[in-house]
Task: inverse folding
């Protein structure tokens, strides 16, 4: 496995803005690690199974607008927020 491509300065600033109001430091760190681990490139597809209210997809869309992002969740009520 190759090393992940670091986020650009613009992507880091966007991620910081999205996480600014999140008080849980461990959660912020986890979001950053997931984003870095995925190491997405334009045109790739992400399928978020158990998306809940779609927070990860919101973050990924802000950072990688050229990716195809899909979310599914068993609980249809939360999907209204994800849209």
Result:
């Amino acid at each position: 496995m190759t090393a992940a491509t670091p986020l650009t300065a613009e992507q880091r600033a966007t991620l910081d803005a999205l996480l600014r109001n999140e008080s849980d430091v461990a959660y912020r760190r986890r979001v950053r690690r997931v984003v870095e681990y995925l190491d997405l490139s334009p045109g790739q597809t992400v399928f978020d199974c158990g998306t809940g209210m779609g927070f990860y997809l919101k973050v990924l869309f802000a950072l990688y607008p050229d990716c195809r992002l899909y979310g599914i969740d068993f609980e249809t009520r939360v999907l209204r927020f994800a849209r």
